Amino acid sequence: MAQSIPESVRALLRPSAASLEPYDPAFTPSRINLSANENTYGLPKDVHRKLVDALASVPTNRYPDPMSGELREAIAAWHGVAPEQVCVGNGGDELLFNLFLAFGGSGHVMVNVPPTFSVYRLYAELVETQVKDVPRDPETFEVDMGALLEAARTANLVVVTSPNNPTGNLLSVEDAARLCEACPGVVLMDEAYMEFASAEDTAEPLLARYDNLVVLHTFSKAFCLAGCRVGYVLSSPGVIGALAAVRQPYSVSVLDQTAAQVLAQERDALASTIATIRSERERLSSGLAALDGVTVWPSAANFLLVRLPDAHQVRCTLRDEYSILVRDFSQAPGLRDCLRITVGTPEENDAVIAAVSQILERSRA
Ligand code: PMP
Predict the structure, then answer these.
(1) CB burial class (10 A; 0-12, 13-18, 19+) of residue 320?
(2) Which residues are bridge partners to 73 per DSSP?
(3) Strands 327-328, 338-342: parallel, antiparallel or unpaired by DSSP?
(4) Contact between residue 40 and residue 348 where contact means Cβ atoms under 8 Å apart
(5) What are the DSSP calls for 165-229, one per residue?
(6) pLDDT single digits (tens) 205-216
(7) How far is the CA of 229 from the centre of ligand 1 (A)?
(8) Pocket test for ligand 1, best of 190, 196, 251 (most atoms within 8 A of CB)
(9) What is the pLDDT of residues 234-252, one digit of tens each?
(10) Would you state the pLDDT for residue 160?
């Protein structure tokens, strides 16, 4: 349960934070947790062993390398860019905050494309950035490119998530290029879930053409390190310099840097799990879509957006009677009666399909 802020304290807050509430992931310990888009398969045993061995010999008495030098080089080699084009952060979340700290602020405009990851608006407003929404199509959640390009022309920052959380849509590389050309400011392509899409869907090749492009990745999803908190962005050396200037120098611990280095090195060992998640995504999608009254949107990520009658109640019953945790978006603008379900293991997915089917049948009886 989120902790409340007394009025006496609220009165002391900076105006842009005065109406905020502490973030509440609505987490309840459950038998099956499909609520936070983690990789529920866990690390392959041999990779986990290498991770543990590497951590065992890390000295902790010295501060970490502020820019995560060795990890930065490994990421640069992996993505075919220069180390100066990489900034590592304490999860993608910290890098997002740094991006708003550096490029947002009073008098600056961020273009947002909802429904999407709520953190962009939160961080933008926290540092007094004006947010201009360009809503997605209410049925397909596709981006309105005409309106987005128009808004981008006067923006300091444009943020597009691809695949989008929670709707699963991709933005084409051609459209990402048009955005970079239209926007005089920075264009962030948040690719936190790109490993679950196809290799040709990433905007990364555009980094060679556009200095204002920023591509965000994380080790939290495909690479099983949500608990470690390591993300990174790729951009031009100038933009990375700006991020380096605003960030907290020691935010990525020696343990986290080491863990991410192991995963960068062993990334190919995750390929078969990622392939399984992609095929399970299609199986979970058709299993749910076959149920009466259920709509499932196509997704390029490791989760599905699902609309079903009385979604909020279904979510509570899943949690309370089946110990299955999914994410409730039914109160979010544009997402009436929607739940977001992370793709799990075959057993977890079977359990979700069976439980939702039973709950819907009971509600019709
Ligand atoms: N971007 C998107 C779209 C996300 O969904 C998330 C995690 N929910 C993040 C970035 C940040 O992830 P992390 O901080 O774990 O790297």
Answers:
(1) exposed
(2) none
(3) antiparallel
(4) yes
(5) TTT-----HHHHHHHHHH-SSEEEEE-TTGGGS-GGG-SGGGGGT-TTEEEEEESSSTTS-TTT-
(6) 999 999 999 999
(7) 10
(8) 190
(9) 999 999 999 999 999 999 9
(10) 98
- Answer whether 302's CB lies under 8 Å from 39's CB: yes
Instruction: Among 23, 75, 93, 171, say which to mutate for ligand 1: greatest number of ligand atoms within 8 Å of CB.
Output: 93
Closest CA to 356 of 335, 334, 341, 336: 341
Any ligand 1 atom below 6 A from CB of 301: no
185 lines ligand 1 (CB under 6 A): no
pLDDT tens track for 92-136: 999 999 999 999 999 999 999 999 999 999 999 999 999 999 999
Q: What is the 220 CA–ligand 1 centroid distance (Å)?
A: 7
Task: For residue 227, give both structure tokens.
Answer: 């608990």
Residue 187 makes CB contacts below 8 A (sequence gap 6+) with 152, 157, 158, 160, 176, 179, 180, 210, 212, 213, 214
How long a stretch of residues is the chain?
365
CA of 93 to the centre of ligand 1 (A): 6
CA atoms within 13 A on the CB side of 289: 13
Q: Confidence class of residue 25 from pLDDT cuts 50, 70 and 90?
A: confident
What six digits make up the tokens of 222? 């495909």
Residue nearest to atom 1 of ligand 1 (CA): 192
The whole-number pLDDT of residue 343 equals 98
Asked whether 133 and 274 are in contact (CB, 8 A), the reply is no
Spell out a b/e string for 197-212, using b for 16 or more CB atoms within 10 Å of the CB, else e: beeebbbbebbeebeb
Nearest alpha carbon to residue 311 among 302, 323, 300, 319 = 319
CA of 117 relative to ligand 1 center, distance in Å: 8
pTM, rounded to two decimals: 0.97
Integer Cα distance of 336 and 175 in angstroms: 28
